[in-house]
Amino acid sequence: MFKNSRLLMASFALGTISLFGCDSGQISDPPNSSTASDSTPTSTVKADKPLTIAVSIPPQKYFVERVGGDRVQTDILLPPGANPATYEPKPRQLESLSDADAYVRIHLPFENALWERMESINPEMQVIDLTQGIEQIPMTTRQDHGEDHQNDQNIANPDPHIWLSPPLVKKQAQTIYDTLIQLDPEHQQTYKNNLEAFVAEIEELHQSIETSLTDIETRTFMVFHPAWGYFADTYNLKMLPIEVGGNEPSAAELSKLINEAEAEDIQVIFAQPQFSTEDAQTIANSIEGEVVLIDPLAEDWMNNMRKVANTFKQILD
Fold first, then answer.
1. CA quadruple 3, 8, 11, 13: dihedral sign
2. Which string of DSSP letters, residue by residue, matches 149-218?
3. Is 41 helix (H, G, I), strand (E, B) or coil?
4. How would residue 236 be classed by pLDDT, with cut points 50, 70 and 90?
């Protein structure tokens, strides 16, 4: 039985917040990077001004700024506290894309719905697709409960939460770097130095989390919104979601979830600040447990991942 004092400590630690296998972390230049300075890239850089990069969510801002340093300035479409599953950007936000040198895409619902319009606003805007080179998994459902889908083909509903697996973030950082040096080849070495430092920190983070979660007593957790599928896959955990595809559970499904929580001896229901906690609280009350908030959208990605991992360690150990 998880003790209330430890739950309170986990909740307090997360109150101030607002990962599939490991690759080698080797930094590589794109095939033609050695001749980038001799070519004429589709760059909008003028008078050595920083690049303007538009992103969807706060963690992407962190990634772009770690690779770009003071050579970039970023604009986030998703406002603080907004639900990325239901948010619709305002017209003035979309119009701001007309000044962007590049847009970081991750295929969130609002991006998919508005993508043709977003592209038409600025046809010259480069697209940094962070899903490039990443084998995505389908969104977890209440039926499959995190089964292995790594060999599934033609996934109809891919999970976009790829920023919550450190090994996958190393690939995303490389993708960001590849575009920045095309747009601003004169500062390639700066970007490369930044990338190498960032990847080293990500690898250290990954090893630390992997070590801390290796011998935990319980490997199953219940969460309201299934944002942590890649994290679960990376660290051999099992995620049980409450809300799936934007749909809250029916009364029958809620009863089944309560039975599953009791069978798994789950004492904590994880939720996130951007969603209602009503259903999570209903299950927590039924099992005499607690709701603990963890935020997949916190801008300080590195520290947030450490805090989330520490919370999993405290609650599942």
1. negative
2. -TT--S-SSB---GGGSHHHHHHHHHHHHHHHHHH-GGGHHHHHHHHHHHHHHHHHHHHHHHHHHTT-S-
3. coil
4. very high
Query: Which CATH number is correct for 4-18+213-316, 3.40.50.720, 1.10.10.10, 3.40.50.1980, 3.10.410.10?
Result: 3.40.50.1980
Residue 115 burial (C-beta neighbours within 10 Å; 0-12, 13-18, 19+): middle
Collapse the DSSP code of 267 into the 3-class scheme (helix H, G, I; strand E, B; otherwise coil) and give the result.
Answer: coil
Determine the topology of domain 33-142+157-209 in CATH: Rossmann fold (3.40.50)
Q: Which single residue is written with the structure tokens 């430890």? A: 6
Mean of pLDDT values over 204-213:
98
pTM: 0.81
Tell me, what amino acid is at 119?
Answer: E
